[in-house]
Amino acid sequence: MENQLFQLKFTSKQLERQSKKSEQNEKAQKLKLKKAIEQGNMDGARIYAQNAIREKNQSLNYLRLASRIDAVASRVETAIRMKSVTGSMANIVKSMEKSMRSMDLEKITHVMDQFERQFEDLDVQSVYVENAMNQTTTLSTPADQVDLLISQVADEHGLNVGMQMGAVPSEKVQQVETDELTERLNRLKQKN
Predict the structure, then answer these.
(1) What is the pLDDT of residues 40-98, one digit of tens each?
(2) How many domains is the chain built from?
(3) Are 177 and 136 in contact (CB under 8 A)?
(4) Does residue 184 sit within a domain?
(5) Considering the domain boundaries, does residue 91 fall inside one?
(6) How far apart are CA 39 and CA 47, in angstroms?
(7) Which residue range forms the structural domain that includes residue 63?
(8) 3-class secondary structure, 158
């Protein structure tokens, strides 16, 4: 239990570090955004704004997860101090020993084979989800948040982006592109 408590606390600290790293990455993306605006590169500015928003969201998610893990660690620590878990753990170990003795090699082999198949299925699903996420990353960041961040960074640094913002694709153009992609997907589904 103490080892688990250590692992929980260690994981929580790692998540807090990752959150700080994401905050630093967000600041770096905002600086790149500022430079892109200064150079008149609105496409680059839009990309840097999306990255900054994504890093900010990632930072918040890391903090939420660290908080949840801290809560679990507190509960485990309380259980250790109360020593009420010790008796039940001893009973569990004894029953596990009995179970291990009664298991035959064929059953263990079957379980391990099944585990490996499920693990391979999980890998395939993970790759599919990762590809889908990579394809929809730009669609997941709301255009109004990106435009707002570009405007905020421009205002903070006294930059003018009013005319250049018009050159950036509007939501309607993005909607048309999304509709075209959806239509292509539907045609592909109909072929199959």
Answers:
(1) 888 899 999 999 999 999 999 999 899 888 888 887 777 676 665 456 556 666 666 76
(2) 1
(3) no
(4) no
(5) yes
(6) 14
(7) 1-101
(8) coil
